[in-house]
Write a structure and sequence with these properties.
By secondary structure, the protein is of the alpha/beta class. It has 2 domains: 249 residues, Metallo-beta-lactamase, Chain A, CATH 3.60.15.10; 41 residues, no CATH class. The chain has a 7-stranded mixed β-sheet. A 7-stranded mixed β-sheet has the order 7-8-9-14-15-16-17, covered by helices on one side. The longest helix is centred in the middle third of the chain and has 12 residues. The radius of gyration is 21 Å and the shape is globular.
């Protein structure tokens, strides 16, 4: 199993010609999770050739317009296209009130919703994935999220083929780590299987710097992190509770993540991405600035 992150929108409060408001489609083997839904995200789904009707969950970091205003029209379109599941929507305090307000303004989207207000800790877990949340500092209730695909034992199909083992419950036993007997011969699970290690994705949007973020992002395979301001704008970043390129890179370095993607860069810096990237790379080398519709694989 792996993550594929479709960058539907990587812009900041003011969109640009090339960068839409925030939205990230996180795809796993069994989940399609949308993190944030700024203006125009349903059109970005079409541009990315992705189907919103496959969504299983929506994670909202906070209710500023550039992160949430696209949710009402997206849900409306999903209802018009006969979305048949129960869509889980996670968000910070007041998420229930915001969804009720959407319904009063725009009428019911005619799909079933399961709305969950979250603060901190594990907010969803099953055999495949775990989703965790932490409050961050942005002046309004705001959440950062991490998603972990758990380690799993995989069968080596080439080795299995050599054994001429038929499709049967015995294969399931091998995948669960059990040894089996077949045609009078003992087959050890470790000889035909391997452990695929866990993978962790952390997304931090809109926050001032604080140490708890470092622990939260610890050992992530990919950290997607806002960096609204350049390193010389540290005072402005503190005033508006955002991060600079240097601070985002510092989080990545101290958290020992494998790679960093800088997003939510202020529209005024749209012509300065090479310089912004250079600032970050001085601290954390494995850094990129993704474009809208880029696909990040973990």
């Amino acid at each position: 199993m792996e993550f594929k992150v479709v960058c539907l929108g990587t812009g900041s409060a003011v969109p640009s010609i090339k960068k839409n408001h925030s939205g990230y489609l996180i795809k796993t083997e069994k989940e399609n999770i949308l993190l944030d839904c700024g203006e125009g995200i349903q059109r970005q789904f079409k541009r990315a050739n992705e189907n919103a009707l496959r969504l299983t969950k929506v994670l909202i970091t906070h209710w500023h317009e550039d992160h949430s205003i696209g949710l009402a029209p997206l849900l409306k379109s999903m209802g018009m296209n006969n979305y048949g599941q129960i869509l889980e929507i996670y968000g910070p305090k007041h998420t229930g009130e915001k969804m009720e307000l959407f319904e009063r303004i725009y009428a019911s989207p005619k799909i079933r919703l399961d709305i969950k207000e979250v603060t901190q800790g594990t907010i969803h877990e099953n055999k495949q994935i775990k989703i965790e949340a932490i409050p961050v500092d942005h002046g309004v209730p705001t959440i950062a999220y991490s998603i972990t695909i758990k380690e799993v034992r995989r069968i080596d199909k080439a080795k299995l083929k050599k054994l001429k083992l038929p499709n049967s419950p015995l294969i399931g036993d091998l995948q669960r780590g059990k040894d089996i007997n077949f045609n009078g011969k003992k087959i050890k699970s470790k000889d035909v299987s391997y452990i695929q290690p866990a993978k962790k994705l952390t997304i931090i949007l809109d926050t001032a710097f604080h140490d708890s973020i470092i622990d939260f992002a610890k050992n992530s395979d990919l950290l997607i992190c806002e960096s609204t301001y350049s390193e010389e704008e540290e005072e402005q970043a503190r005033e508006y509770k955002h991060l600079t390129t240097k601070e985002a890179a510092t989080i990545a370095k101290k958290a020992k993540v494998k790679s960093l993607a800088l997003v939510h860069i202020s529209e005024k810096h749209s012509h300065r991405h090479p310089q912004m990237l250079k600032e970050a790379k001085k601290v954390f080398k494995n850094t990129i600035i993704p474009n809208d519709l880029d696909i990040l694989e973990v």
